[in-house]
């Protein structure tokens, strides 16, 4: 796994969901009966395969850092569905989060903290303006639409992935409006949570990072050390 720059005990991994038949079969042996059943319920064969492969990769990564057998790992879920490990590992508390888009899976892992990640496959034809007006804060909208047209789509994805990573990190689901906090989005501006109108202390607690991903994708990670 790749260390997150300037963060102790934080790592990320970008993996392909397109695997050989032999590797798929190996990954499937790591899955729980519940995961296999969830996969069977997906009618689209591509979505089914990517779900099962993704869960197998996640289990393998968690097994590697916790010392547990991948198939023996148990998950529990927060009030709004954020997964966590049911038991503390031999290395202590381990936080993780995953996101998939297109044919890629992004996994973030942190020792002794909380983490959220978001991965988005870029769509050049995305009608992003209505999405920004609905989900971005007034400050973010003002900054986004003040940019030259050719810079707005990349800025939209920077903002979107940073906000999603933070929201997934806190595990609040839709209970916290995405408009109640501001993240940076301007070109060259450091990724950061700039302001929060409900839990202002989170500005100091959480740090945001853009992650190096292949062309055609955008990704961000949010981390809070306990």
Can you give a write-up of this model?
The protein is α+β, with helices and mostly antiparallel strands and about 230 residues long. It is built from seven helices and eleven strands. It has helices at about 20-30, 35-40, 45-65, 130-135, 140-145, 150-170, 200-205, and strands spanning about 1-5, 10-15, 75, 85, 95-100, 105-110, 115-120, 180-185, 195, 205-210, 215-225. The strands form four sheets. Strands 1-2-6-5 form a four-stranded antiparallel beta sheet, with helices on one face. Strands 7-11-10 form a three-stranded antiparallel beta sheet. Helix 2 runs antiparallel to helix 3. The two termini are about 20 Å apart. The model has no long low-confidence stretch (mean pLDDT about 95).
Write the layout of secondary structure elements.
Blueprint: E1 2-3, E2 10-16, H1 21-28, H2 33-40, H3 45-66, E3 75-77, E4 83-85, E5 94-101, E6 104-111, E7 113-121, H4 128-135, H5 138-146, H6 149-170, E8 181-183, E9 193-196, H7 202-205, E10 207-210, E11 217-225
Antiparallel strand pairs: 1-2, 2-6, 3-4, 5-6, 7-11, 8-9, 10-11
Helix pairs in contact: 1-3, 2-3
Spell out the key features of this protein:
three-stranded antiparallel beta sheet; globular; 11 strands; 7 helices; alpha+beta; 226 residues
Estimate what percentage of residues fall within beta strands: 25-35%
Encode the helix/strand succession as letters.
Answer: EEHHHEEEEEHHHEEHEE
Which radius of gyration do the C-alpha atoms yield? 18 Å
Oligomer: single chain
Could you give a short account of the major beta sheet? 4 strands, antiparallel
What do the pLDDT scores average to?
Answer: 93
Fraction in helix: 25-40%
Question: How many β strands by DSSP?
Answer: 11
Shape summary: globular
Structural class estimated from helices and strands: alpha+beta
Q: Count of DSSP helices?
A: 7
* Termini separation: 22 Å
Low-confidence stretches: none
How do the strands line up in the largest sheet?
Answer: 1-2-6-5
